[in-house]
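Example for tutorial group B:
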């Protein structure tokens, strides 16, 4: 069972904002620094937002995060874009609103119906091509391939599938942009233990892959070259904090939807562990850019 099936939209609605985005947001505040590494790649580091964000800031911050990823990928008017992970629709919709021609897919029938309804309600049904399947089934050229948390279901293999899709579809000069969580080096013991716990209740993906695992995937790709990354770990940590606050306020709603007290405590622990991993630096939240 994929994470799309095991974490239904009803559960997501109990902690996420109106965008239903489940990745790290980027808040408006916080300084940025840019560094050119010896290998020629650029690193943009986003310092912690200040003052501390509130729940009312989350929707705009999620839209800002999606827009940042699309800008990295060079998505604009008439760009042919493959959104390899549509989430609950915000990323492909933001791409379509830029005038791009979007193709996206899901292996979840629940998500397929929800996405179709959302695209239609936004008047984007003719702009976003949606089908049941995975990224490996997409054919034709693309100017950009974008993905958010492609490893959340299948770990490094999920990220590898997106890299292979980009290598196969991107035209010369086309861009791949991925937003994901990584371990800065080998996973800490606590990360491995939490992933073992999570395999029973959340996802069987295992611990987050290391940064070097991902760069190795890109370096071994016949056509892709790594250009750099944006580091937004502190913003992601505040995102999860706000999710936890929202979830704690919706106990009655959760119970009405069939999530009993034991399950609610489990999910609260999952969110707390996610925030702790980001705060301690066990995992980092990055947007990665590569070019064909």
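The residue assignment follows.
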């Amino acid at each position: 069972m994929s994470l799309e099936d095991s974490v239904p939209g009803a559960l997501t609605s109990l902690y996420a904002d109106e965008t239903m985005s489940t990745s790290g947001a980027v808040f408006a505040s916080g300084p940025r620094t840019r560094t050119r590494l010896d290998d020629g790649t650029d690193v943009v580091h986003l310092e912690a937002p200040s003052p501390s964000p509130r729940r009312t800031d989350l929707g705009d911050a999620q839209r800002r995060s999606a827009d940042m990823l699309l800008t990295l990928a060079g998505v604009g008017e008439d760009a042919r874009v493959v959104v390899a992970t549509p989430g609950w629709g915000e990323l492909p919709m933001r791409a379509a609103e830029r005038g791009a021609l979007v193709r996206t897919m899901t292996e979840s029938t629940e998500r397929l119906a929800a996405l179709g309804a959302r695209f239609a309600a936004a008047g984007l049904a003719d702009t976003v091509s949606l089908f049941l399947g995975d990224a490996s089934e997409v054919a034709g050229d693309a100017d950009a391939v974008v993905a958010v948390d492609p490893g959340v279901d299948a770990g490094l293999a999920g990220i590898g599938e997106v890299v292979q899709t980009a290598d196969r579809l991107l035209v010369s000069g086309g861009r791949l942009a991925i937003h994901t969580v990584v371990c800065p080096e080998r996973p800490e013991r606590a990360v491995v233990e939490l992933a073992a716990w999570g395999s029973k209740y959340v996802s069987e993906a295992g611990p987050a892959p290391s940064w070097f695992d991902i760069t190795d995937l890109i370096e071994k790709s016949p056509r892709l070259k790594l250009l750099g990354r944006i580091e937004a770990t502190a913003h992601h940590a505040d995102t999860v904090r706000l999710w936890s606050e929202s979830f704690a306020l919706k106990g009655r709603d959760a119970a009405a939807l069939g999530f009993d007290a034991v399950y609610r405590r489990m999910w609260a622990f999952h969110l707390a562990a996610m925030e702790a991993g980001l705060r301690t630096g066990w995992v980092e939240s990055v947007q990665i850019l590569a070019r064909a």
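DSSP finds twelve helices and nine strands in the chain. Compare this with the pattern of hydrophobic and polar residues in the output above.
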